[in-house]
Amino acid sequence: xxxxxxxxGGFFDPEKLQKQISELDQxxxxxxxxxxxxxxxxxxxxxxxxxxxxxxxxxxxxEYKNLRDLYEIAPDDADVLNAIEALGxxxxxxxxxxxxxxxxxxxxxxxxxxxxxxxxxxxxxxQMMSRMYARWAERxxxxxxxxxxxxxxxxxxxxxxxxxxxxxxxxWLKNEIGVHRLVRISPFNANGKRQxxxxxxxxxxxxxxxxxxxxxxxDLRIDTYRSSGAGGxxxxxxxxxxxxxxxxxxxVVTCQNERSQIQNREMAMKMLRSKLYELELQKRAExxxxxxxxxxxxxxxSQIRNYxxxxxxxxxxxxxxxxxxxxxxxxDGDLDDFMxxxxxxG
Length: 346
Known about the structure:
alpha+beta; Double Stranded RNA Binding Domain; 3 domains; globular
């Protein structure tokens, strides 16, 4: 085994992280920092994230040294070998840590999946994607809740909104925004014809109180309606579902899965604050780099990833070129390599 786990440079560079923290410390100690509260919060949040990252990397280095010593004593011990393999997997995931640079990257996320045109085919694909992201979230130990779901006419779903709670969930998911294309033999066609289906993904951060978003009541239109459920089950007989429209931006959020209208309204407001924050980030991106901002727009025909199940098995990310032939594993939530490549590129 090598003598060190954290080589200088690349993903694992504690010296570089410490230098960045020291530079931020100088900003924090500046008495004029809070003249700009928004900037001050961003600086503090970034410093906190870097310190956490450094702590995690140093902890991995310590674990590696312990395992190296044990390996020299008992190179064939199954427990030691299993621990080394587990640490390797942890190191692979740690590659992402140093790529989370935006203030909201450490937050949870809202994930919205929308079936494209094509009726049952697209709605079935949207449901396959909803399971794929749910399995991905479970692999990472994230908590995932359905905020709202609309079932398809005969199969699948028209759309679904997940709340994914866990540290860095948004950082992981933010580059999944876009159109996802599926090619397969249709299970709904008696002639067994090949079918192409589309579904889109949108992601926005689950922002907390450290990120301030000002919303005026006069800018809101709040509607209530009766919740719907599968096959008539679990349908609330009162108008407990809530739809909130932010008039200046025409941003619409809905929630129907909580138990009361008050709870649905609170969740809808939380989603609205998060969406408006994401809109603000997009505006800034447009001002800095119009080309990069265009990549975030969800438009049919601008797919970010192709999932081919016939006549061969291949999942390929259009943006990065990363591809996998084990499509079953990808549909079961094996998405990390795609996400890492996109983060490295961005």
